[in-house]
Amino acid sequence: MGEDVIVAEGLVKRFGKVDAVNGVDLSVPAGTVMGVLGPNGAGKTTTVRMLTTLLRPDGGRAVVGGHDVVAEPDAVRTIIGLSGQYAAVDEYLTGRENLAMFGRLYHLSKRDASARADELLERFRLDEAADRPAKTYSGGMRRRLDLAAALVVRPRIIFLDEPTTGLDPRGRMGMWEVIRDLVRDGATLLLTTQYLEEADELADEIAIIDHGRVIARGTSDQLKAQVGGERVQFTVPSPALVPKASAAVLDVTGETPEIDTETSTVSAPVREGTRSLVAVVNALDRLGIEAHDVGLRRPTLDEVFLALTGRKAEDGAVER
Amino acid sequence: MSYVLSDSWEMTKRQLRQIPRIPELFFFSLIQPVMFVLLFRYVFGGAIKMPPGVDAVQYIMVGIFAQSMTFATAGISTGLADDMQKGLIDRFRSLPMARSAVLIGRMGSDLVRNMFVAVVMVLVGLLVGFRFSGGFWGAVGGFGMFAMTILAFASIGAWIGLSVRNAEAANIAGMVWLFPLTFTSNAFVPLQTMPGWLRAWAEVNPITKIVDATRGLFIGPPVFKVAPAVWEALAWCVGLIAVFGFLAVRQYQRASSR
User: Fold this and answer.
1) How far apart, in whole angstroms, are the C-alpha atoms of residue B92 and residue B98?
2) Which listed residue, of A239, B57, B158, B182, carries a Cα 20 to 30 Å from B127's Cα?
């Protein structure tokens, strides 16, 4: 792991009276993936826009690839690739024309721009559609074209703002594959996402951001450990049995269990792993409750978010 | 920066490539000016009282040509607002390209597009009775005046598009003020017919200057003077380009799609 190539210290951005970003600190070592996770309106996009020189911070500082984003924006722009939430391509131009145009705007020679366009079209499986206007592309294809446009000059530092938002599961898997390839090639990535499993899947380190602040950071494992390690979970055959079962769990574990009333699922954090599991199963057995899907599992990032913020990630929709 | 020209040319190429791919847009953008030429020629051509020695058809034709050139605001304001909504402006701003290239490039393609409209309008005008009586160089100068008018109003449109940020709103914001502006000039009626307060405004209205200059160049003396109208009109256009070009580039640099 190399030195930090993306550094943010106390970044602040206000829109009118709203503190969109309120003191964000981040550091991303070279060759790693930082996942910035948070609900809509948490300040993820605003943070990315400041790091990519699109917005001027109202406070704090940010250094990308050794260049200060405010003092040397042009130096930053030549070494980063940015793919935003939209597929920012010209929909009347073909895939090939789009990439060649972006190549020229990065000041590649005509020949290099067109060679690079061919290379990217093949790599992103767009070669068959290369000469069709981008407006005929599917959502997934457009996103891939957009990402290809961000990679024209082989940037070592790549910012992906919600790269899979709005894609169907197949498109999302395709995008993940592409992102993993980038990482294999040694790029440093900062990606934002609202999807917990996406950060879990792709990121080396995760920063959870809420109301414009980083409220937790660490590896996926560390964050999960922070909410109390393993949980025991089981489902009872009828909702009527839930109160009895959860009372038993409270008795054994000393923790008030979480209950999903729709599926009659009960879960609670446990300290002693399998031993606690056995104790819970025995307690249920004594009560004559036949539980299903009994098991020990590690918390999901959803639960991490809930534990850290007191609400579910999806409930967070505020204005952006 | 040395890349201003090449970056701008890339942007111009982008816009010009779109023209054959949205043929219906180009077609309808021609219909309106041609319709105006015919309507003004036959509906108002005989109704407006002209000073002695002035031919109403010649007079009104130049007015309608010039007015149509000011409509260059609409295309650029809608286009830029649309680029902003779709995140393209963000992408351009994240590239190491010249700050002014997106605007200069678009103005270049709008110039091409609108000069084509001008040529078509004048050709239709010639079919229904318009005549160049200012000679060859007068005609060339008149088209030069159109080019300056297009650039001036396109820079206003650029500023509007980048400020409004929504394509539909930009379309309206780029047009509403043009009708009162162009109608309170001498584009369609001699200033003598207006009440005093309106006439006072109309005399300083840049549209009046532009129309005066174009009449001087297209129709020529002795009916219409060439100078100083041409210099005044050019000064207006250059001034508008400088002011709104500056404002638009500043707005571009600040632009954020949300």
Assistant:
1) 9
2) B182
Q: Could you say which of A207, A225, A243 is where a domain stops? A: A225
ipTM score of complex: 0.87
* Separation of alpha carbons A70 and A50, rounded Å: 9
The nearest CA of chain A is from the CA of B3 a distance in Å of: 8
| A124 and A163 fall within a common domain | yes
Number of domains in chain A: 2
Q: Does residue A318 fall inside a structural domain?
A: no
Strand order in the sheet with A231-235: A258-260, A265-269, A231-235, A292-297
User: Which residues from A are below 8 Å from B13, CB to CB?
Assistant: 101
- Measured CA to CA, the distance from residue A44 to residue A20 in angstroms comes to 9
Residues A186 and A252 grouped into a single domain? no
Q: Residues A50, A98: one domain?
A: yes
- The total number of structural domains in chain B stands at 1
Expressed as residue numbers, the domain containing A275 is 230-297
Strands (DSSP E) found in A143-274: 157-161, 188-193, 205-210, 213-218, 231-235, 258-260, 265-269
Torsion of CA B14, B16, B21, B24, to 10 degrees: 130
Cβ-Cβ contacts under 8 Å for A294 (sequence gap 6 or more): A232, A233, A234, A277, A280, A281
Q: What are phi and psi of B254, to 5 degrees?
A: -85, -15
C-alpha dihedral, A282 to A285 to A291 to A292, nearest 10°: 60
- The answer to whether residue A312 sits within a structural domain is no
Strands (E), A30-131: 33-37, 59-64, 67-68, 80-83
Within this chain, do residues A145 and A27 fall inside the same structural domain, yes or no?
Answer: yes
Q: What is the pLDDT along chain B (258 residues), one digit of tens a residue?
A: 578 999 999 999 999 999 999 898 888 889 999 999 999 888 887 777 787 788 888 999 999 999 999 998 988 999 999 999 888 998 999 888 888 999 999 999 999 999 999 999 999 999 998 999 888 999 999 999 999 999 999 999 999 999 987 888 998 888 889 999 999 999 998 888 899 999 999 999 999 999 999 999 999 887 788 888 899 999 999 999 999 999 999 999 887 544
Q: Are residues A111 and A250 in the same domain?
A: no
Are B107 and B204 spatial neighbours (Cβ–Cβ below 8 Å)? no
Mutate to test the interface with A, among B94, B165, B250, B253 (most CBs of A within 10 A): B94
* Gap from A205 CA to chain B (nearest CA, Å): 25
Asked whether the beta carbons of A296 and A274 are under 8 A apart, the reply is yes
Say if the Cβ atoms of A54 and B90 lie within 8 Å. yes
A120: its two tokens: 């990217």
A33 and A78 within one domain: yes
Tokens of A217: 């950071």
CB-based contact (8 Å) between B87 and chain A?
A: yes
